[in-house]
Amino acid sequence: MTVTPSAPSAEPTETEPPATYSLRRGSLGTTDIAFFVVSAAAPLTVMAGVAPLAILMGGIGAPVGYLLAGLTLAVFAIGFTTMSRHVRSAGAFYAFITRGLGRRAGIGAALLALIGYNGMEIGVYGLLGTATRDTARSLFGADIPWLPVSLLGLLLIGYGGYRSIDFGAKVLGVLLVAETGILVLLAGAVLVDGGADGLSVASFAPGNVMVPGMIAVLAFAFAAFTGFESTVIYRREARDPARTVPRATYLAVAFLGLFYAFIVWTVIQAFGDAKVIATAGSNPADLFFSAITVYVGSWAADLMHILIVTSVLASLLAFHNAINRYGLALAEEGILPKALTRVHPRHRSPYVAGIAQTVLGAAVVLAFAAAGADPYTQLLLWVNTPGMLALMVLQLLAAIAVPLYFRRVAHGEGALRTVVAPVAAAVLLTGAIALVVTHLDQFTGASTTVNTVLAAIVPAVLVIGLALGWWLRRSRPEVYAGFAAEP
């Protein structure tokens, strides 16, 4: 790394050269980092927008799909967090992959991470536009265009990334509590009332879990965790990162897995095991709103509409902060332009990387709008899908890298953490990726041709990254040799 870190107590004056500024060390605790990760997953949006489809396809056993996905990612987290104690680079995924699979693979992973995180964020601006439009229509009968909303969202998120990481953590904390709070309110009301036909645990019976539709549920469930691994990106700003980052990772995975399963189960109870599938089939987008109207009141349904918009904003801000730090790290590596290494003298944010990401997002959003594309079925789904696949492939590569890394270095870690868990995670993640790819049409609703192109983006980016690594080795050997070096 080329940026010289400042001591936390020494604040450079604004007249000092930019190279003396660094991200603010020791700013984030375990809960703060977990807020970033869980907010990126957008729990309310995932539940209200996607869980009804999981119930429709997998039946009342759908909650188990979220538990299985969470368990798989918890196994991945064992090796991932163990390696995070030994590899202190801010590059997270690409640094881990570099140490285990070599520099060319690491450079390919870096490019894939950049595409993946950008895809996960930029596509969501389409969702922001449609969610806000639907909320305005539901509450006020107004029909507002999506593009101005998405562009305004770009400016708001850009400002949030420009401010300090402390500011972002506080904003996400408030928004996350609000969106999970409305779901807890719904769940509590259903439990107190006893559901439509009394509370049942039939969702967890093997006969309701081992159904053909569970494969589709698993694909949706794995997608619902996307971005949980970004805990490591905040290593430089974490307090005691060797302890904080692993704790935040496990906390995020455990919370998401248990919370998703619990909420889906309570919504099934709200309509009853015998009726929920038919109700979801008649209008899946209305399932959660109908439930909360019946058990809490219409005012809560109106509030849920508003909180879905804030849930989307929280997800955007979380991904924006992650992307900025990846951009900063890659600029420090010499892969991206040096201008992106600039850190704001007061806010200590990677503000130039943030501006660049905002400009890129605006360009993509405007391009889709100019083409007359639908903000949901095309901007969101076509941009998000390769981003989701990219991050899943990165998880797989990181799992493979863990045992290869520990085979070559002296360490005091046990075989469970360095071999058994990462190998098991690699097998499980391979299956998860296969599930998502084979059910891509259920994510996108697009033609076979479109889905083939979307799926092909990930291997294409990896190949381009490998070619970039080969070029750097020949043309810029100093950059290649220093790639993913310890700070």
UniProtKB/TrEMBL annotation:
Keywords assigned: Membrane, Transmembrane, Transmembrane helix
Localisation:
Membrane
- Name the Gene3D superfamilies on file: Amino acid/polyamine transporter I
Q: How does it sit in the membrane?
A: Multi-pass membrane protein
Where is there biased composition of kind Low complexity?
1-20
Residue span, Amino acid permease/ SLC12A domain? 38-476
Q: Does the keyword Membrane apply?
A: yes
Residue ranges of the TM segments = 33-58, 64-84, 105-128, 140-159, 171-192, 204-228, 248-268, 288-319, 351-373, 379-406, 418-440, 452-472
Please identify the protein, giving its name as recorded: APC family permease
Q: Which organism does this sequence originate in?
A: Streptomyces heilongjiangensis
